[in-house]
């Protein structure tokens, strides 16, 4: 099993998309929407990109596109605290999400329970993501059980007993 990062759309402050190819000989594409990007880029991977890419290969996906609720780059979720909504989302994030969310890809929501923004910001962002997905006719999925019963499991936690892909109902994560 192997994967290769093939591209990255980013600037100094934001990573909008990370592109990976697995060694699976398939045209199936997995789009994974996470909380915010860590330090993975075209030159280096990180534990989440690695674990998700291996899961993708095992499940028949030849390509993985990593997107984010908030495009602000930081390996520490605490860095999101106290920043404005627009700053965290990033100026091109919705445009990039709209480019990659479609009904031809499997779109997995995967940010876990550690979302260090207030509920108002969090639900505002979820509703925006839902609208983008609804406009594209795209169905959300999750891997494994919801974290804390209300958050799509983070890709690093797609472990034994929590590796099954299933449909995600918006009402199970949006209050």
Q: What's the structural domain tally? A: 1
Could you tell me the radius of gyration in angstroms?
15 Å
Beginning-to-end CA distance, first to last residue: 39 Å
The name of the CATH topology is Rossmann fold
The proportion of strand residues reads 15-25%
Helix and strand content put the structural class at: alpha/beta
Number of strands: 7
Q: Could you say what the CATH architecture is?
A: 3-Layer(aba) Sandwich
The helix-strand sequence is: EEEHEHHEHEE
The strand order across the widest sheet is 1-2-4-3-5-6-7
Which stretches of 5+ consecutive residues score pLDDT under 50? Answer: none
Largest sheet: 7 strands, mixed
Q: What form results from the Cα inertia axes?
A: globular
Helicity, as a percent range: 10-25%
**How many H/I helical runs?**
4
Q: Quaternary state, please? A: single chain
The CATH class assignment is Alpha Beta
Average pLDDT rating? 95
């Amino acid at each position: 099993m192997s994967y290769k990062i093939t591209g990255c759309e980013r600037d100094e402050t934001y990573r909008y998309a990370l592109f990976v190819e697995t060694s699976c000989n398939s045209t199936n594409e997995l789009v994974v929407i996470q909380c915010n990007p860590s330090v993975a880029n075209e030159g280096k991977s990180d534990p989440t990109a690695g674990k998700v890419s291996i899961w993708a290969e095992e499940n028949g996906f030849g390509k993985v596109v990593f997107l984010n609720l908030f495009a602000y780059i930081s390996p520490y979720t605490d860095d999101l605290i106290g920043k404005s909504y627009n700053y965290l989302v990033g100026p091109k994030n919705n445009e990039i999400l709209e480019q990659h969310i479609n009904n031809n890809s499997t779109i997995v929501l995967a940010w876990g329970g550690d979302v260090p923004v207030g509920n108002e910001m969090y639900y505002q962002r979820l509703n925006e993501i839902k609208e983008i997905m609804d406009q594209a006719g795209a169905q959300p999925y999750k891997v494994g059980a919801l974290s804390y019963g209300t958050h799509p499991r983070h890709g690093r936690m797609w472990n034994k007993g929590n590796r099954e892909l299933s449909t995600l109902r918006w009402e199970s994560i949006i209050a």
